[in-house]
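Re: weekly structure request thread

Next one in the queue (355 aa):
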Amino acid sequence: MATMIDVARRAGVSIATVSHVLNDTRPVLPGTRQAVLDAIDELGYTPNTLARSLVTSRTRSVGLAVSATSNPHFTEIFQGVEARTLEHGYGLLLADPHDDPGHERKVVRLLHERRVDGMIIAPSATPDALVRYLGQHDVPTVFLDRLVDPPAGSDFRHDQVCAENTGPMASLVTHLAERGHRRIGLVAGLPGLSTTAERMTGYRHGLAHAGLPYDERLVAHGDSRAETAEEATHRLLSLGAPPGALVTADNAMTVGALRALRDRGLSVPDDIALCCFDDFSWADLFTPRLTVIAQPGRELGATAVRLLLERMASPRLESRTVRLPSAFVHRTSCGCPESAGHPETPETPRKGPES
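Done, posted below.
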């Protein structure tokens, strides 16, 4: 089995230089770095990660805690996180908090006990205990997709990254109103999440922009789950004056809404128009094809890793919040004809009312 001494001899450098290349502890000239990497490949050298972590107090690993890992949105985020962590030589430990505050704190503690160098977390609706734990233990952290409010008087040193929610949701409602719809229902997400609050705000802004009144009876919470969204859609459709158009606030709830519409024998868009927040790879395979807001999932994941690496390098940085643009993808479930000529891929985000 090859050793660091063998790598140093093959590359013609010192053992210290090999260590600096492996651990990123000191700048190394590009040609020298490449010589070391070539020697590692030629000899099949495998670093002793455990021994290295004892020396450097770093494990070169990142913890990722996101719920609903089967959700296509979070799958894209995971791909972005994984690609960028591997690019920088980090391993990835994955945990699912199940959107439950107690389980969330448990899995984050387990990741911390495994000495990850930092964490990327999509927080639950009530993350207060989580934020306290991370602050008490000085864990470098980036909150992903969902924002948290810093505790009053705390030295909040965590970063946050999410997509734009309010304006894009308003643009869906405005578009449906432009199609002549006056009763537009919303299947909203889990109460307490920043994404739910922002998309509900966007829904109200879209109504106001179109001169339509807000009617709380037209809003039902699907709690970001397909089964609950199916029930919520049935409640909306059972109103004395049901909505003629429907907006779902994430892709899991879109599936639940479609099941409810199928069960009632309703045709989209002939009987009811449908627009959705979140795109997914098979959204254009439905008949009709789904008009959606597409979030930049992979870019969100990659940005979270960038912020985390910067945070680990400079723990006292001021907290940062980064928002990435979402895009309106115009298809046909809204009632527009195929001949409208709108692209299937994300176009420049539609301008909704100011948020």
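The mean pLDDT is 89. Residues 260 and 278 are 19 Å apart (CA to CA).
Next request, please.
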